Every structure is written in C-alpha cells, then in structure tokens.
Amino acid sequence: MALLEFEGVNKYFGETHVLKDIDLEIDEREVAVVIGPSGSGKSTLLRCTNRLEEIQSGEIRLDGVPLTDPDADINELRQRIGMVFQSFNLFPHKTALENVALAPRKVKGVREAKANDDARELLERVGLGTQTGSYPSELSGGQQQRVAIARALAMDPDVMLFDEVTSALDPELVGEVLEVMRDLADEGMTMMVVTHEMGFAREVADTITLMSEGRVVERTPPEQFFDQPTTERGQQFLSKLL
Amino acid sequence: MATDTGRTADRDRGVLEQLNDRAFRRLGVVGTSLFALGVVLFIGYILLVRVDYALLVEIVYPQFTFAFLRVIGIVAISSVLSVIAGVIVGLARVSRTRLTSSIAKSYIEFFRGTPLLFQLFVIYIGVPQLWSGSFPLEQFNYYAAVIGLTLNHAAYVGEALRGGIESIPDGQMEASRSLGMSYIQSMREVILPQAWRNSLAAIGNDQVILVKDTSLLTVLAIPELLSAFRQINSSTFDAWTPIVLVAIAYLMITVPLGKVIRTLEERADPATHGGDD
Lengths: 242, 277
Fold this sequence. Notes:
The structure holds 2 protein chains of 2 kinds.
Chain A: E1 4-13, E2 16-26, E3 31-35, H1 42-49, E4 57-62, E5 65-66, H2 74-79, E6 81-84, H3 96-108, H4 112-125, H5 141-153, E7 159-163, H6 171-186, E8 190-194, H7 198-204, E9 207-212, E10 215-220, H8 222-227, H9 232-241
Parallel strand pairs in A: 3-8, 3-9, 6-7, 7-8
Antiparallel strand pairs in A: 1-2, 1-4, 4-5, 9-10
Chain B: H1 2-50, H2 53-93, H3 98-113, H4 116-129, H5 140-166, H6 170-178, H7 183-213, H8 225-236, H9 240-267
Helix pairs in contact in B: 2-3, 2-5, 2-7, 2-8, 2-9, 3-5, 4-5, 5-7, 6-7, 7-9, 8-9
C-alpha cells in the first residue's frame, strides 16, 4: 500500500477549478518530484496534503488514514507531514534552535533539555551546528531554509513536502539546500518535491509527476521522462526548458 | 566658454541655496529661542509671583498626595485589566468565526464611537437604576471608574492588537500549523509575541491616554487630581498653585510611563526585522 494516496481530488478557488480528479500514489521512501508550468496546481496539491487548503471532493490518505475527513485529528496528522515553504516562514522572534525545538516541546511535550539537544543535532545535520543561537534575520536565505528543513524534521514526519523551496534563493545558495534534500532522500525519507530544479529532479527523483492545468498528465521515472517523454505535454514542457 | 557659464551658474545657485539654508536655520534658531524664552519667562512669573507657597505646602499633603495615589491605584488596576481584556477583544476580532468577530467589532465600534464621559454615566447612573431596591455595592463610583476605563481602553488595545496580528504574514500561522501546533498554540507561541511587538507603541500610547482620562472621574465624585484642583480653587480662589501641582502630578505618571514603554519597545527589537537576505 502506498504511504500517501490521492483519490479523485478536486479543488476549487471560487469558480476556478485548480485540481481536477487527481489520482496519485506515493510509496514509502519514494522521492516524488512534481513539475509543471506555473498555475498548474502543483503547489496547491502540496498545500491540500496537509490541509492548509481544503479540497472539495475526493480523498487524501496517509498510511491508509483519510486526512481529508472532517473528523480527522488534523494536528495529529500534520505532525506526520513535514512542510517546507518557498518563503522559509521561520519564526523571526526565535533563534534557530528555538525554531526547531518549539513544536516538539509544545506538541509532543518533549522536555526542554531533550528538545534542545535534538534540535542541536538536527541543525548539525543540515550544516548549521554553529548557528544555533542566531535569529533568522542574521542568517542567509540558504541557511534559513536549512533551519526550516530541520524544523520540519524535528517532528519526525513520515513524509516531507517541499514547496519550491529554492525559488526564493539567490542562485549561489540553491546548492546547499538541494544538498540537504539529497541527503534526506539518501536516508530514505519519503518526499514530495515541487521544484523547477530539473537537475535535482533528474538526479534524485524516483518519479516525475508532470502537472498541467490542474491535472496529472504524466508520471514516469526520470530517465524516461527526460529522455523520451511519452505524452505530448511532457514533450512540450521539456522543449520549453531546453 | 559654455562650460564657464555653466560653472558660474552652478556656483551662483549654490551660494543662493547656502544663503537660503543659513537664513532658514537662523530663522529657526531665533524663533525657537524666542519661544523658549517666552515659556521660561511665563513659568518663572507663575512660580515666583503667582504660586502661593504657604498654600502649596498646606495642600500638597494630605490632599494632593492622596489624590495622586488614588489616580495611580485606579490607573494600575484599569491598565492591567484593559490590556488583558484588550487581548481578548483583539483575538475575538481576528477570529474566523463570523459571530465572534462581529461581536468584537460591535464592541469596539461602541466604545470607540461614544465618549468615555458618556460611558461613565451609563455605568454610574444607568446601571444602578436597573435595580428595584437600593444598589448593593457601596462606593460604586470606584467600581464604575475602573469598569468604565477598562471597557473603553480594552476597545483601543484590542484594535491596536488586531492591527499587530494582521501585520504578521500568513506564512507564520501556516508554518506553525503545519508543525502540528493548534490554532491556540500557534497564536500564543508564534503570532501574539510578534503582534505584541508590532502593537506595543499603539498600546503604550493608549495607556498614556488612560492616565489622562482619569481626570474625567471628577464627575463620579472621586477625589482625584482635577477634583482636588476644583475644590482648592473654589475655597481659596487661588488657581495657579493647584494648577502647578496638577501638572506636576500628571507628568510624574505619564513621563515615566512613556520611558517604560520605550524601553519595552527597544527590548523587543531583535525580531523586528525578519529579513530574507
């Protein structure tokens, strides 16, 4: 059984139909890269996955549990879904360490000393062991985004969602963030990655999901997608990139 | 040739501007000096000629001291209560439950939209009339004073906090919720600390106004500073001795309060720039 399942998902913003009958399965340890032109619904799909947006019909299941059920304990389910945003969204009034340790303390009731130790370890893992006391405003964009990844990992999630996490970064800072993501993938984290970084997609992805106008139009392994896309959409998308 | 003319014109304009600058600055210095001199002369005249120091010593204790302490007591209680109530009003105002937010909105509209003096009368005169027998609370004027100041200023604090909350980017709440924190946890840990900093100046400003609003309590027969002035003025016909005392007494509260607020603002600094550089 897939870890994350989308079944007949439809989403509207007012009159606009932004997600159309999405069926998708993401297996455990899979790195699913979602690409597509802007406005194709890929970020919305991620945001629906942890219910920052509500869907109008269909079902999204995590490990078989329908998380779009109105009765679902959303706070419980969100702990199992880490999310990293394009604009980092670090808490500016807290240090890097406090950003990472906050949710484990408040949500899981981890004691402060333990939460801080874990946070320090996570920051070390993303290469920021010496920046634990810095405030977000004192960090570069790449560093902030790595803190954001550590913050999401602190809840020990089953799946991580990455929403164009390098799009707001200066080009020279993209590499350090992608490297952290690559390490995560190597460690077997299940990841759903919306990105425009085709090099990363080709190298790290297990599957490429191409979205267009709110639909999934192609879903193939990266070698096949980049070398011989099966659909016309895929061919068009690639020809624009090259 | 052409460049020469250009340079001369530049120099001319420069001299003219310098003259203007200097003239303006001089005018400013002279103007403010004259103003300051006038004020000093006036205050000197009041203090040396108008103030009756024998009377001043006589009224400063116990009458003025007690009035002063009474004001401080009422301010302290109303201030704490109005900030607590204001946080509740502000949170209700940003609630996504339509009923809650519209109740908060109506509350703010009423208490900001009618005069505090009128609100004090509603509580002090209106409320006891709702009882058929005699009103159960003794010294109800003090209760009315604290209730009136609290309800009124809670509206201003609430509105200031609403502004502070709405200035926090949506991404903060989203990031917090995506970590599994509840709405209330997110408010308490993430949104309110930042919103508080953003609205601190406005809330502090309102608390200074609260101090001054205690002068209205004279109509509730509370012997505060303005009542003391009126009473002394009517019994001695001396105006300037109590005026000086009243001014000093209010400034002794508002100036340190302003300092405290500024210190709080400065201490809140590290988070004011959440840069993405």
